[in-house]
Amino acid sequence: MDPIRRSGPEAMAVDEWLLETTQVPVLRVYRWQGEWGSLGYFGKLSEAKAAFPDLDWVRRWTGGGVVDHRADWTYTLVIPAGEALASQRGAESYRQIHTALAETLREEGRELRLCDGLEKTGQAACFANPVDYDLVGAMGEKLAGAGQRRSRAGLLHQGSVALCCLSFQQSKNRAQAFADRLAAGEIEKFSRVLAESDVIQRMMARYSLEKWTERRQ
Q1: What percent of the chain has pLDDT over 70?
Q2: For residue 178, what is the domain's CATH number?
Q3: What pLDDT does residue 217 have?
Q4: Does some domain include residue 2?
Q5: Closest CA to 58 of 40, 34, 33, 78
Q6: Chain centroid to CA 3: how far?
Q7: Contact, 117 vs 199, CB < 8 A?
Q8: Is 133 part of a structural domain of the chain?
Q9: Would you say residue 114 lies in a domain?
Q10: Residues 15-24: tens digit of each pLDDT
Q11: CB 3.0-4.6 Å disulfide test: which of 117, 170, 175, 205 passes with 29?
Q12: Residues 6+ apart with CB under 8 A from 40
């Protein structure tokens, strides 16, 4: 659980730092400072602004659509190279992660299933366009999605759940249950000290730059 609310650029920089430096799989659950939306690496900023005109925007390093983070539950999975999940094809790793997430949310009493792709709309807004292995509710509404990126360091999976938590403790309980399923119960609290100077450098080199956010208008 990241105890600090972070801006969009800082949140993305922390994820990149984790991908490049961690030697063990990490689940990071975090909150946003301010009213932020994020768009995927290949997304168009003009479409993001049209969908949610009142948000500040940051471009993710992962794919996927446009996400409004004002009332979601946001998490990141970092899986180092060499781990089984990092070597899976994109669709299969997505399915495995969302299967664990679905089991976690069902335990909370939520009714949902993995999307079979029939609900696709092609819209830019992530939660208006369910794709294969997203989580959808009883009426086909999208409840969880994610974007992924693979590098030499491993797999970066950035996810969003529309079912937000009402308290920090509730969020912590969800994170614990999710981590338990992903790691078959073999988990421990992440204890590394965040390299603030490294994160700031990554922000300034990429996520805070207008040319990065506006790379596709």
Answers
A1: 93
A2: 3.30.930.10
A3: 63
A4: no
A5: 40
A6: 17
A7: no
A8: yes
A9: yes
A10: 999 999 999 9
A11: 175
A12: 59, 60, 62, 63, 64, 65, 66, 147
**171 found inside a domain:** yes
pLDDT digits (tens, 9 = 90+) for 161-207: 999 998 999 999 999 999 999 997 678 888 778 888 999 999 999 99
Rounded to the nearest integer, the mean pLDDT of the chain is 90
Which of the residues in the chain have pLDDT under 50?
none
Nearest CA among 69, 61, 84 for reference residue 151 = 61
Secondary structure of the chain in HEC code, one letter for each residue:
CCCCCECHHHHHHHHHHHHHHCCCCEEEEECECCCEEEECCCCCHHHHHHHCCCCEEEECCCCCCEEECCCCEEEEEEEECCCHHHHCCHHHHHHHHHHHHHHHHHHCCCCEEECCCCCCCCCCEHHHCCCCCCEEECCCCEEEEEEEEEECCEEEEEEEECCCCCCHHHHHHHHHHHHHHHCCCCCCCCCCCCCHHHHHHHHHHHHCCHHHHCCCC
Q: Is the pTM of this model over 0.85?
A: yes
Q: What confidence score (pLDDT) does residue 127 get?
A: 58
- Domain of residue 184 covers 8-213
Q: Hey, what's the torsion of the CAs at 134, 138, 141, 142, to 10 degrees? A: -20
How many domains does the chain fold into? 1
